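TASK: fixed-backbone design
INPUT:
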């Protein structure tokens, strides 16, 4: 009798499980990672369709193509170790000199 088990990489897709007024929850590699808006401002005013469009580029490396946001599990778990943040500029903050 032969075994029908397939061998290879575990193909689990990252998934956004919850979006709230406080932040976003990402389920990846059987663990849930919380991204509060204070630490991850790119998600705060983003459309839901852009937030849920997440890809795992390599193990523990996540990319949101619609938002051009690139994060690792390490940076999500320990944002204090990665102090560089993008500035989120609202349309009302744009000024034009005439």
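OUTPUT:
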């Amino acid at each position: 009798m032969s075994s029908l088990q397939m061998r290879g990489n575990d193909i689990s897709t990252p998934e956004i499980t919850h979006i709230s007024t406080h932040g976003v929850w990402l389920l990846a590699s059987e663990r849930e990672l919380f991204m509060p808006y204070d630490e991850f401002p790119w998600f705060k005013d983003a459309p839901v369709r852009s937030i849920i469009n997440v890809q795992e580029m390599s193990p523990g490396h996540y990319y949101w193509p619609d938002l051009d946001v690139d994060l690792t599990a390490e940076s999500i778990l320990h944002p204090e170790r990665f102090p560089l943040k993008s500035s989120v500029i609202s349309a009302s903050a744009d000024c034009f000199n005439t």
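COMMENT: Helices lie at 48-52, 73-77.
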